[in-house]
Specification:
Elements lengths: L9 E4 L1 H7 L7 H13 L4 E6 L12 H7 L6 E5 L3 H9 L4 E7 L2 H8 L3 H17 L3 E7 L3 E2 L3 E2 L2 H14 L3 E6 L6 H14 L4 E6 L6 H10 L4 E4 L19 H10 L8 H12 L9 H13 L1
Parallel strand pairs: 1-2, 1-10, 2-3, 3-4, 4-5, 5-8, 8-9, 9-10
Antiparallel strand pairs: 6-7
Helix pairs in contact: 2-11, 6-7, 8-9
This protein binds 3-hydroxy-3-methylglutaryl-coenzyme A (HMG) and magnesium ion.
């Protein structure tokens, strides 16, 4: 049997949001903006640039409005996360036209992340999504703990599908389905994404893997086999949710891009320029970045010095 793969894959870069939200040390707004610009210059076409969450809960994202204003001239899809009506109002004030809402399948995680049960979140979001769709806003729903929850353990697939169905019925454009704590294995990924692709053929289906157990690339391969052609990833492999204990960074964009290019799958991203973009943020981190491609890039820089 021959396995077929998509010819082209879209990478949704989440480094400026998921990548940085977990960093305790505040990264200056101008560095974040430089990072976003350099990522865009490398060929990234869609990016989560910040989140309009409570600065008390996630201080790193307190400059969301400034980030949006400074990124205004970047002609790419720029997505901002919004947790509630207040976040939506702040984003609309800055004329954002692509918003991401986020909900955990697990009640316990959702409570810890946004102080609501999953049902409470959904009840609030469904009419809001309908209203925003009438305004012509692009809407993505990030579905957290779609495989495992740090508090409740294994999540039943039926519960994930039920939540996705509610969002699809409300008119969402995209579902970004997340392995929040990096526990999923390739069989589970193939299984869930096969179902999502066949159940929701008119909705963009994106896979969002954290790489806690170094299974993210294997999960991406399995998801490609299930027909997924959109992946969230974070430049430098930064990231993690501050309210999901034990979770580490997202799969590194540079490692995903390298693998896909080696497989003959286009991404539209220039790997060398992407690695240069990561230099911008790496200098702000107190630890070395772990991705294979970035380590090789540093070795090359040393050889040339
Ligand atoms: P709360 O404390 O229940 O909020 O937090 P509240 O409505 O009671 O308001 C309390 C105060 O916060 C008030 O201010 C509000 O005005 C203010 P005060 O009167 O005390 O001065 N407030 C806000 N300020 C700015 N922007 C807002 C906002 N909302 C309220 N939007 C809340 C509820 C949702 C605000 C809080 O829980 C929160 O901000 N959570 C965000 C958590 C977060 O950012 N998590 C990471 C993103 S999700 C993720 O990483 C997962 C993902 O990557 C997929 C995956 O991997 O699973 C997407
Ligand atoms: Mg995440």
């Amino acid at each position: 049997m021959t396995i077929s793969y998509p010819k082209k894959v879209t990478i949704i870069e989440v480094g400026p949001r998921d990548g940085l939200q977990n960093e305790k040390q505040f990264v200056p707004t101008e560095i974040k903006t430089k990072f976003i610009t350099a990522l865009s210059d490398s060929g990234i076409s869609e990016m989560e640039i910040t989140s309009f969450v409570s600065p008390k809960w996630v201080p790193q994202m307190k400059d969301a409005s400034d980030i949006v204003r400074a990124s205004n001239s970047i002609p790419k899809k720029k997505i901002v996360l919004v947790p509630n009506e207040k976040g939506i109002a702040r984003a609309l004030e800055e004329n954002c036209n692509a918003l991401a809402v986020f909900v955990g399948v697990s009640d316990t995680f959702n409570k810890k992340n946004i102080n609501k049960t999953t049902k409470e979140s959904l009840n609030e979001l469904i009419p809001t999504i309908r209203r925003l769709k009438q305004m012509g806003i692009f809407l993505r729903a990030c579905i957290s703990t779609a495989f495992y929850c740090p508090f409740e353990g294994k999540i039943e697939k039926e519960k994930v599908i039920e939540l996705c169905q509610a969002f699809v019925d409300s008119g969402i454009d995209e579902l970004s389905v997340a392995d929040t704590i990096g526990m999923a294995n390739p069989i589970e990924s193939y299984d869930l994404f096969t179902d999502l692709k066949s159940l929701f053929p008119n909705t963009l289906i994106t896979a969002h893997f954290h790489d806690t157990r170094k299974m993210a690339l294997a999960n991406i391969l399995a998801s490609l086999q299930a027909g997924v052609d959109r992946f969230d990833s974070s430049a430098g492999g930064l990231g993690g949710c501050p309210f999901a204990p034990g979770a580490t960074g997202n799969v590194a964009t540079e490692d995903v891009v390298f693998m896909l290019h080696q497989m003959g799958i286009e991404t539209g991203i220039d790997l060398a320029k992407l690695l240069d973009a990561i230099d911008v943020i790496a200098s702000q981190m107190e630890r070395p970045l772990e991705s294979a491609q970035y380590k090789l890039h540093l070795q090359d820089q040393l050889k040339q010095a």
